[in-house]
Amino acid sequence: MKKNKKPEWAPENSGSEYASSVMPAVYSTEKPKKQIHKRRQLTVDDYTNGVLESNTVVLSKAITLIESNNIKHIELTQEVLKRILPYSGNSIRIGITGPPGAGKSTFIEALGLYLCRNGFKVAVLAVDPSSIVSGGSILGDKTRMEFLSRENNAFIRPSPSGGTLGGVARKTRESIIACEAAGYDVILIETIGVGQSEITVRSMVDLFLLLLLPGSGDELQGIKKGVVEMSDLIVINKAEGNNKDRANITRVSYNSAIKLLTSATEGWKPKALTCSALHNEGIENVWSNVNEFMELTKNSGIFKKRRNEQLLNWVKSMVEEEVYRRFFENDEIKKLKQKLDLSVLSGETTPTQAVRSLINKYFGDK
Hints:
Single alpha-helices involved in coiled-coils or other helix-helix interfaces; 3 domains; 14 helices
């Protein structure tokens, strides 16, 4: 019911012109519903246009899509890659490896900053070890490259290795394509560490760089010969202060040793250099040698030959991946494997016999 009532501040002799209507309060017992805003899923056009426009947000999402194992995402990824592939292939691809403590992240940051300040766009694909618990990156290279991450012309993408051999993420090749299509001139691929399996990196880059610590030359025994043989450049980092002399001794030792090894790149003589990434010393010389390498390989046709080999290796690795996935997702293989696992653990069957049984089951007894 409405009631006319004058407000307290109305004049004492005022009339009805100051009256106001008071309505009884109405209360609702229903709780307000929360509005759920669903994010619009990006389409093939969204991904393609975003990458080609160098939109770093879309590029990051595209790489996340590339790394996904979801069947729907794989199909979408391949359609996106098909569209951006013609815009790729124009970068310099550099693989960087080295033992723990060699300062790979500091070196990459110093080199990246030097390149950005000289007009290049740099993408860093830093492959971190995978956490056993979460499956995510442990080291987080973006946090270890604080200054480079602030550069407008730099893009840093830490990716969990997923436990893959050699620490190279399974989808690194596709990520390289995306970065190149986004207009990045130099792609730096950092791997976990040194090992024979670093040949995986060698199969996807133009130049392979091995980063080492100063020493008396004992590293020649500590580092596997295969990794040294794959290297186009060997850089002795931390050549600063009291380490300068030791770094030069190490450089001389490696330059003498690599003369006896077969070069990883036809027509190129590998070199050992020194630098101090912390103090930005020797970085320009490293880049000068990279340019020398690129000029030689492009003029000799080795560059084109190596890129063709990379494409064929890409096909081979994808076939291996698909066969592996189909094999272990097969229902009959799953059932048989459960029985064989128990049999192997009990000692009734040898691992080799178990493998043969699984292979014969999948491909048929032949």
